[in-house]
Amino acid sequence: MTESAPVKPVVVWDLPIRLFHWCLAALVAVALVSGHLDKLTPHMKAGTLILALLLFRLGWGVVGSPTARFAQFVGGPGRIRAYLDGTWTGLGHNPLGALSVLAMLALLLVQAGSGLFATDDIATDAPLAWMVSSAVTKRLSTLHRLGSWAVVALVAAHLAAIAFYRIKKGKNLVAPMISGHGEPDLPCAPQRLASPWLALALAVAAAALVFGALAAWGR
Hints:
The radius of gyration is 20 Å and the shape is globular. The protein is built from eight helices and two strands, in the order βαααααααβα. Helix 2 crosses helix 5. The model has no long low-confidence stretch (mean pLDDT 89). The chain is mostly helical. Keywords: Cell membrane, Membrane, Transmembrane, Transmembrane helix.
């Protein structure tokens, strides 16, 4: 009986996605810790950088490498059902992982956006708090505080999923996000990566948009 050839590792995650992932993880940790310790200066700086990163990720989800594109990994109930049945194969995010990615991006966008209008009701107002009424500011501040616990819960679920795949399925999800390489479920051709210069231009544009807007309207 002839043994099938081993599946060769391929590039799963391009460098821009890996840098985004680890920078976002570090900044979210800083934002959570500083926020709960009432260290608002580093908290707001981390939140601003998170917003710029999220704008970059939204753009890269449209023009980036195949595994980064939303059109590639976001599927409907059919893909989720196939994954649960064990018949789904693919490179990059699986259908359930795609849902967690969307949930995390959406939640962090809400957090970063609401944080721009929040206040601590003592001495510190966010840079755009002056643009809305005090009632709106209070509602957004409450949303921001509650949302921080939702972020903690989602991060905990993310870490639990990584541990589950490692322990129960013997699949290391962290290593490919460091090296970029992973073993696909089935042999496949290498994906055609998007230009890193395009990623750099997109990152600069996202940063310019966020910091330019705050410079123009922030107080």
